[in-house]
Specification:
- The protein is of the alpha/beta class and 334 residues long.
- The protein contains 12 helices and 10 strands.
- The strands form 2 sheets. Strands 1-2-10-7-8-9 form a 6-stranded mixed beta sheet, with helices on both faces. A 4-stranded parallel beta sheet has the order 5-4-3-6, with helices on both faces.
- Helix 4 links the parallel strand 3 (70-74) and strand 4 (93-99).
- It is globular and about 55 Å long.
- The protein starts with 9 loop residues before the first helix and ends in a 12-residue tail after the last helix.
- The relative contact order is 0.15.
Length: 334
């Protein structure tokens, strides 16, 4: 008996091809089309599924990752989650080094998925005990293991140059005027920016940075210098990673936590979208870019992950009060 069913073979084939969603409240506010790539609909729940898949696929193709091997990574959570899902589907083990400051939801999810999880103090990259540097040492000490190295592994950027960028271009029929997103590793921003610029050099590509990142001052004044702090996770950096090298940057916006949390609450209540912390940075930047370009333009950004991974922090009134936020100012109305 023949069948017309069309299906995807396993976890890996279901990564990508996420919808591009117009966000009505922000579009109406600006007179522009504000579009978000719904990466929270990836099978592992975040944009990092794309980089994780490419990192493992390229390691397999090189012969570096052999049957029964282990993938080691230092991550703020989402890359580790994506890697662990893919490792499970391919018969590998995962060992994740994560800063102890990351949300408990992500740490517990990694354990539930079967990763070996080691938490370490949150210290700057220059410190040998930084989570990225610890993961490199651990990987080098193990047999039949690879270090995913998402910050400097160009498979990360290639994932977005080859998939996310073309998807956005096709979904807008090339009618796109601006692209903005925050950077952690730089893979999503740079891969998409490089692809879009290859299609139309007039597209404005804008970095969005939280307070505490050294890159805003770098893009504005040529010097890496961090000021302030942010409770957002997985973004903000104070070094130029290999994934950031040679990427196009037309402008850089510095976004406050107050703005980011307020817009997250706005799109939750007005658009029904329950989104993660870095998405707040992205959405504020998209609105700011839309206002800079004026009505009638199309701006795309990335909805990196969902809000359920941050309920104990960004959506928790007690936590936010403990950090000194004014609840009304950030969009809590009751």
């Amino acid at each position: 008996m023949s069948s017309n069913y069309k299906y995807l073979n396993g976890f890996s084939e279901s990564v990508g091809n996420t919808p591009l969603i117009r966000i009505p409240s922000l579009s109406e506010e600006t007179g522009c089309n504000i579009l978000g790539k719904a990466e929270f609909l990836n099978p592992g729940g975040s944009v990092k599924d794309r980089a994780a898949l490419y990192i493992i696929k390229e390691a397999e193709e090189r012969g570096d990752l052999k049957p029964g091997g282990t993938v080691v990574e230092g991550t703020a959570g989402n890359t580790g989650i994506g890697l662990t899902h893919i490792c499970n589907s391919k018969g590998y083990k995962s060992l994740i080094i994560i800063p102890e400051t990351q949300s408990q939801e992500k740490i517990e999810l990694l354990k539930t998925l079967g990763a070996e999880v080691r938490t370490v103090p949150a210290v700057p990259y220059k410190n040998p005990e930084n989570y990225v540097r610890v993961s490199e040492r651990v990987a080098n000490e193990m047999e039949n293991a690879i270090w995913a190295n998402q910050f400097d592994n160009l498979a990360n950027r290639r994932a977005h140059f080859e998939t996310t960028g073309p998807e956005i271009w096709n979904e807008t029929d090339g009618e796109i005027h601006g692209w903005t997103c925050a950077m952690g590793t730089g893979g999503t921003y740079s891969g998409v920016s490089m692809f879009l610029k290859s299609k139309n050099s007039n597209i404005q590509t804008v970095v969005a940075e939280p307070h505490g990142s050294g890159l805003y001052n770098f893009f504005k004044n040529g010097e890496i210098k961090a000021e302030g702090s942010s409770i957002t996770e997985g973004i903000g950096n104070s070094r130029i990673t290999k994934n950031m090298e040679d990427m196009p940057v037309d402008d850089c916006f510095l976004i406050s936590d107050v703005e980011a949390i307020a817009i997250l609450n706005k799109v939750l209540k007005k658009d029904g979208l329950f989104l993660g912390g870095s998405v707040g940075i992205n959405l504020v930047a998209a609105v700011r870019l839309a206002k800079k370009l004026g009505p009638g333009h199309t701006i795309a950004t990335v909805l990196c992950d969902g809000g359920s991974r941050y309920q104990s922090k960004l959506y928790n009134k007690e936590f936010l009060l403990s950090k000194g936020f004014d609840l009304k100012e950030i969009g809590f109305t009751d």
